[in-house]
Write a structure and sequence with these properties.
The protein has 938 residues and is α+β, with helices and mostly antiparallel strands. Among the domains are: 189 residues, Valyl/Leucyl/Isoleucyl-tRNA synthetase, editing domain (Isoleucyl-tRNA Synthetase, domain 2), CATH 3.90.740.10; 75 residues, no CATH class; 147 residues, Orthogonal Bundle (Isoleucyl-tRNA Synthetase, Domain 1); 62 residues, Ubiquitin-like (UB roll). The chain is 33% helix and 19% strand. It is built from 28 helices and 37 strands. The strands form ten sheets. Strands 11, 12, 13, 14, 15, 16 and 17 form a seven-stranded mixed sheet that branches. Strands 26, 27, 28, 29, 30 and 31 form a six-stranded mixed sheet that branches. A hairpin with a 2-residue loop joins β34 and β35. The longest helix has 19 residues. The radius of gyration is 35 Å and the shape is globular. It binds one RNA strand of 85 nucleotides through α10, β12, β16, α14 and β31.
Length: 938
RNA sequence: GCUCAAGUGGCGGAAUUGGUAGACGCGCUGGAUUCAAAAUCCAGUUCUUUCGGGAGUGUGGGUUCGAUUCCCACCUUGAGUACCA
């Protein structure tokens, strides 16, 4: 009987779906295990063979855990809000919901044919109102919360109001805006309702503010920092400029320290942790305030080196610093103004690309050194960033290279405050082993002591204090897009009002056009029914807006990361209409045990999701404050492009080995025209494009035409995309799954070459043959021999270790070895083949399910217990010892394992081959490691 | 520039409490079967060799009886990050 993968795979996929084989129960006595993939954005292009890699790995692990007796949650869904559907809508007028629905159908079909054990009854889609109801709900919770640094968690805004009512805000230790006014309890109660609202907004965890945002004119929207790469938009590579806009922001900075600390409690890849650590950017130092000569104002700076404060010889402000225009003297006005204008013109990208050029301008003003009382010049320079720290630095040229370069360039003095350090060529930034000099009370001290004493003195004298600073900025949460979650917000007297949670979801309205309005409002500005009636609590037509009971709704939508920041909790109870998920389900499933996805989400999704999880934990919604215990980044699968060589200015192609004789240019050809031996199907190539129809070909001697190959990113334009549909049709899903795992270590980037799949395909055919004699299924119930059991048990041991270590590539070779060895023994014993099928079933679920049932079983193999390894089958009585001379293995010798060291040494030394190797020399030393090796020195 | 990771046959890769380098597969070579092809099966495939053997895991050094594995320096590639005060 032939191995017919097409029929087998279709049948079992149908069986699993009909029997809901992989539906997870929310109540079970079994231990739980939650395996999750990062859910995909359903793009119009569908899947290529690189996409399922992580899904296959997680599916193997999920199936393995079921065999091991776990109640496994392994759901899948779609991150279905996003830009491509919207841009398609702008071009074609097609509603993004329709495009998205179509794309999801394609995705589902492609995923289904690979045989994943997803519990599809739990599917979520971020663009479904039943889902984004909870995205809106979380937004309201954030709005109604503030961060109390005393309790170090988010609390309800009502606790803040009651503090204000009792004692004003002097005692409040909160994470909030910087420009907060202070007020007493009496003043608070005297404030108008609007004023109170305005103050509270400065404390809320999501808040409206005029912020400098990254505005992308080409996309017509703002972008978050992590959506910008090298100064241009991550998507499309468009220019990005700084612009002031009123936007919703998320106070993620409140969680900076906890996001940092939490990294120590989770098993995530070190590079990913490093990039989050770097993104959060904690630095410890001090805030110091410098008075400005002749002004009431002072300049605050953040420094990590307060020990070098006596080395300050000037100060530098960012050109955008608010004090610049105020303190600049008349004499310097022109120079400063032209410098400010010049820097404003330069894009972020230019400024970043050009780090070496030193530029700046003197303001004419002086600051007073807080310790020495000396006057120091105040400069402006674009090496100081407005967005970091306070936008101003105390410049210590002897200890910081940038300050040093600036001072040299503008002839500013460079006082040396280090003992025995030469600073004639460069600054001395190293803080280890230095001794401070010329620094009043700090002189003679080492770095650590000087640092502590400097902060102590600043605090005592009242112009500075120790502080931890973070690079992490609050996250802009508004997008000027259509295809995203609407905010549950309307505006009354210019102040935002939350819609009561019981009226959620606020459903995205229909619009005529998906572009911004003519007066520059976001696309929702085109909606005609987009106002909130506070009496009837429903969305009504804009024409009813009277600013008394009917008010305009928010026109922005939420960013892409909103829906993906909590979806893993929703899978636990996806159809619950009253809560994100029930307490019981959240309590049972807790968090993700294994999360698999790409490393590109390191500082986006994975940071925001941790932030929301911690917030939801503070609010008592979820039971744990990290959402994923273990995370693995699967590597990218690259394409192997094929090139043909065309003679310049001729319609003539030259086979690979002959190009030296011609002047040729390489052009991509479709990889599907090329076989395993890199030979081109000339006919297919000719029919590919009209211009190749009459092309001439200079072939190899044997008539074949060879292409050259190169590994590149898989992309349509390089004609190297391989569609899993084609692979599944020709070789089957089991072969695809095995081959993707066989390519190499999961986390590694590796090239795809379809030719290699024949190896795993013939492995499956060999496995099939073990069960059949010609057309006839033939299985023996005789006891397995010692040798057969040895094969089975060494395979159990290795495969179990490999899966636990996520080393899926090596277990595929182990299966091949086992089948090769059993084939050699002509083994068809049930006792040997049944455990082998179970071992293999996570990798190749269809063929094993088929053979399992052919063996007479009536329930799915996925419920069979994992075979138990018994070491007694691997006990050996003899060892084939490698005999080395000076560490080089020269021959092997089979010896019983129960020999003593001395006996082994004697036998080896007496052996004629040893004598031949020694050629009469006497060995200096003989190392015998019983059971391992013999090494003869001399 | 900084940080991290990785360099092993023609290719993907295997081997680490230091102990037989190249498992498994692709490709390639030869053979069997076939009218022929596909499929299948068998043998071989790191390099070199005077067929005894010798060399060999990016380069150079070190530790060790013994190093792909540990240490130092360098080279190359990839990823991330970048005026962070």
């Amino acid at each position: 009987m032939q191995y017919n993968h097409q029929e087998i795979e279709k049948n079992w996929q149908k069986y699993w779906a009909e029997n809901q084989t992989f539906k997870a129960s929310n109540t079970s006595d079994l231990p739980k295990y939650y395996v999750l993939d990062m859910f995909p954005y359903p793009s119009g292009a569908g899947l290529h063979v690189g996409h399922p890699l992580g899904y296959i790995a997680s599916d193997i692990y999920a199936r393995y855990k079921r065999h091991k007796g776990f109640n496994v949650l392994h759901p899948q869904g779609y991150d279905s809000f996003g830009l491509p559907a919207e841009q398609y809508a702008i071009q074609t007028g097609q509603h993004p919901a329709k495009t998205t629905e179509d794309n999801i159908k394609t995705y589902r079909r492609q995923l289904d044919q690979i045989g994943f054990s997803f519990d599809w009854s739990r599917e979520v889609r971020t663009s479904n109102p039943e889902y984004y109801k909870w995205t809106q709900w979380i937004f309201i919770q954030l709005f109604n919360s503030w961060y109390n640094k005393e309790s170090d968690k988010a609390e309800d805004i009502s606790t803040l109001i009651s503090i204000f009512e009792k004692e004003g805000n002097a005692t409040v230790n909160a994470v909030c805006d910087e420009d907060i006014i202070s007020f007493s309890a009496e003043e608070w109660s005297a404030f108008s309702a609007a004023k109170k609202e305005e103050i509270l907004l400065q404390y809320r965890l999501t808040f409206l503010s005029d912020t400098e945002v990254n505005w992308c004119p080409a996309l017509g929207t703002v972008l978050a920092n992590d959506e910008i790469v090298n100064g241009v938009s991550e998507r499309g590579g468009h220019a990005v400029v700084r612009k002031k806009m009123t936007q919703w922001s998320m106070r993620i900075s409140a969680y900076a320290q906890r996001l940092l600390d939490g990294l120590n409690t989770i098993d995530w890849p070190q590079p990913l942790k490093d990039s989050q650590t770097n993104w959060i950017g904690r630095s410890q130092g001090a805030m110091v305030s410098f008075k400005i000569d002749g002004f009431e104002d002072s300049i605050s700076v953040f420094t990590t080196r307060p020990d070098t404060i006596f080395g300050v010889s000037f100060m530098t402000l960012a050109p955008e610093h608010e004090l610049v225009s105020k303190i600049t003297t008349d004499a310097q006005k022109e120079a400063v103004a032209s410098y400010v204008e010049a820097t404003a013109k330069r894009s972020e990208r230019d400024r970043m690309a050009d780090v070496k050029t030193i530029s700046g301008a003197f303001t004419g003003a002086y600051a007073i050194h807080p310790f020495s009382g000396e006057k120091v010049q105040i400069w402006i320079g674009d090496y100081v960033l407005a967005s970091y720290g306070t936008g101003a630095v105390m410049a210590v040229p002897c200890g910081d290279q940038r300050d040093y370069d600036f001072a040299k360039h503008f002839n500013i003095p460079i006082p040396n405050i280090f003992e025995n350090v030469d600073i004639s060529e460069a600054a001395h930034a190293d803080k280890e082993g230095i001794i401070i000099a010329n620094s009043d009370f700090l002189s003679g001290l080492k770095y650590k002591k000087a640092l502590k004493l400097a902060i102590y003195e600043m605090e005592k004298r009242g112009f500075g204090y120790g502080k931890v600073n973070y690079r992490l900025r609050d996250a802009v949460f508004s997008r000027q897009r259509y295809w995203g979650e609407p905010f549950p917000v309307y505006y009354r007297d210019g102040m935002p009002q939350m819609i009561d949670a019981k009226y959620l979801p606020i459903v995205l309205p229909d619009v005529e056009k998906y572009l911004p309005t003519e007066d520059g409002k976001p696309p929702l500005g085109n909606a005609e029914v987009w106002a909130w009636n506070t009496k009837t609590n429903e969305v009504v037509a804009n024409e009813l807006i009277d600013y008394e009971t009917v008010f305009p709704l928010e026109l922005n939508t939420m960013p892409g990361w909103a829906g993906s920041s909590y979806y893993f909790n929703r899978y636990m109870d996806p159809n619950n209409d009253n809560e994100i998920a029930s307490k019981a389900n959240l309590g049972y499933w807790q968090n993700i045990d294994l999360y698999i996805g790409g490393s590109e989400h390191a500082t986006g999704h994975l940071l925001y999701a941790r932030f929301w999880q911690k917030f939801l934990f503070d609010k008592g919604v979820v039971p744990v404050d990290e959402f994923a215990k273990k995370l693995i980044n699967q590597g990218m699968i690259l394409g192997t492009s094929a090139f043909v060589f065309r003679v310049e200015n001729e319609n003539k192609f030259v086979s690979q080995s002959k190009i030296a004789n011609y002047k040729v240019q390489a052009i991509h050809t479709d990889v599907s025209f090329v076989n395993a031996s890199d030979e081109l199907d000339i006919e297919a190539f000719k029919n590919w494009r009209v211009e190749f129809k009459d092309a001439a070909f200079i072939t190899e001697e044997d008539g074949s035409f060879k292409v050259s190959r190169e590994v590149e990113k898989m992309s349509k334009s390089k004609y190297n995309v391989v569609n899993p549909d084609d692979i599944v049709a020709e070789y089957g899903a089991d072969a695809l799954r095995l081959f993707e795992m066989f390519l190499g270590p999961l986390e590694q980037t590796k090239p795809w070459k379809t030719s290699g799949i024949s190896g795993v395909y013939s492995f499956l055919k060999k496995l099939w043959k073990l069960f059949f004699n010609g057309e006839q299924l033939e299985i023996s119930d005789e006891a397995a021999t010692k040798d057969e059991l040895k094969i089975v048990h060494k395979t159990i041991k290795k495969v179990e270790e490999d899966i636990e270590n996520f080393s899926f590539n090596t277990s595929v070779s182990t299966f091949m070895i086992a089948v090769n060895e059993l084939t050699a023994l002509i083994c068809n014993k049930r006792e040997a083949l049944e455990p082998l099928l179970i071992l293999l079933s996570p990798y190749a679920p269809h063929i094993t399910e088929e053979l399992w049932h052919k063996l007479g079983h009536t329930t799915s193999i996925s419920t069979a217990p994992f075979p138990v390894f018994d070491p007694k089958h691997l006990i050996e009585s003899a060892k084939n010892y490698p005999i080395s001379f000076n560490g080089k293995m020269r021959f092997t010798l089979e010896l019983p394992l129960d020999l003593s060291k001395e006996e082994i040494e004697k036998i080896v030394l007496d052996h004629p081959k040893t004598q031949a190797q020694l050629q009469g020399r006497t060995p200096k030393k003989v190392i015998v490691v019983p059971g391992k090796i013999v090494n003869i020195v001399g």
